[in-house]
Amino acid sequence: MAYSVDPWMREYNEASKLADDITGMMSERSSFGMGPEAQRHSSAIRRKITILGTRLDSLQSLLTKLPAKQPITEKEMNRRRDMLANLRTKVTQMASALYWS
Question: Is residue 57 situated within a structural domain?
Answer without folding.
Answer: yes
